[in-house]
Amino acid sequence: MSPGLCDPGGVTAARRPATPTDLLAAALRRSPAAPLVTWYDDASGDRTELSATTLANWVAKTANLLQDEFDVAPGSTVTVLLPPHWQTAAVLLGIWSCGAAVRESPEPDDGGVALVAQDRLAAFEDEGDADHLDVLGLSLHPLGLGMRDYTGAARDFALEVRTQGDVFTPWTPLDPAAPGLLLGDGALSLDALTGAAVGLAERLGLTAGDRVLVGDRLAEEAGPVTWLLAPLAAGASLVLVRQPDPDALAARARTEGVTATLGLRVEGVRQLGATS
Question: Which of 35, 242, 255, 269 sits CB 3.0–4.6 Å from 41 for a disulfide?
């Protein structure tokens, strides 16, 4: 997981929100009921759409689960082994709402909590990575249902999160200078994540009201600043497609009101980051 496609430098704190949580709050103020994150899986035909209000509800529930059940707070680190997905958006924003940092691989003998896609759980457990962690498994079902045909020790995220509160209050105020994303031996602070998102949105030419169609391959390679935070920073909404079917993209772009693409090409639609 890389932070995104830009350097966070050059964006002043006075021009932008301080944490990723602020980006979601701005989306709620701007347009609470409009689609904010729409997810497609072209292999299965599934589609899920979340408004800012619905996403914020998932984020609050996730943050309450992490804070109340696993003591996730500023200074904590949470392992996330999830593909780009609407539930991943809720998980990442939930972690950052707690003031904690995200990492993409567990450290040996380092405790904490991990959120792992069900199809990665067996390998995760076989490698011994789960031995020193509390593990939450995610089915990534389009409707947020729980895991099926799983008999391991991981707790089911869908079942655990459902009972959590709809409003989240962190135990301590967020520190924008606290780590938000661990990258090898380095880290981006919560503030730097937000700065990177604002900077990338400006470089790509994302504007308020854009509806951005993003392919899962680029999203996986580029990281959450690119596929999640940059659209939020710009005041845009996201259409995220897993295993995109090239023959379906033009019709989908029309149906979803897509104004720009990232990592995909649709005739007649502006391609972000294109060099020609």
Answer: 242
